[in-house]
Amino acid sequence: MTNEVEDIKRVLTICFRMGDNQTSDDLERILSYDMGWMDTDTAHDAIKALIFAGWIKDNQGVLSPNCELKGIIAPLGWQPRPSRLTDPLVNEEHVVEKPPIKIDPQPVIKPEEKSVENDPRSRVEKRLVRFIAKQSGIDAAEVQRRAERKVKALGYCTLWLALCLISREQGLEMNAIIDSLSTS
Q: Does the residue 40 lie in any domain?
């Protein structure tokens, strides 16, 4: 047993000397006030570190030692180094190897594409292309090309939405376009 492990076990023996489980507040009081080894902030950090390293079990706020403490004796006047408690070695006596979790890759499910034929806005797309071309002075084929490019770039964008974006970029009045696309 190394000196660091021995120091941790001595501290735990003193903290749990009555054999009773303790709360975090009880252990802070023992480390800081009863024994005078450290201030309360350091004691709080030490308790958290000992729990994390596996020296103390935390069962819903009830703390208990996670190692064998029989036969451990702390000499009179002995004091631990606070750094051994705030940055403890991992308790290798009770390391529980968790089996690796197998992660099965899930297939990517693309959302169903809505049928363009069922969308009433798709019927006005050609008329909208001509309207945007006429109002902006851009060729209708160029408006169509830009709209298709936006659809590819944005992924889930419909052609009529891309046409609305193009008309907005060109500074066209949107009210007439929105009215032409309304489904009501």
A: yes
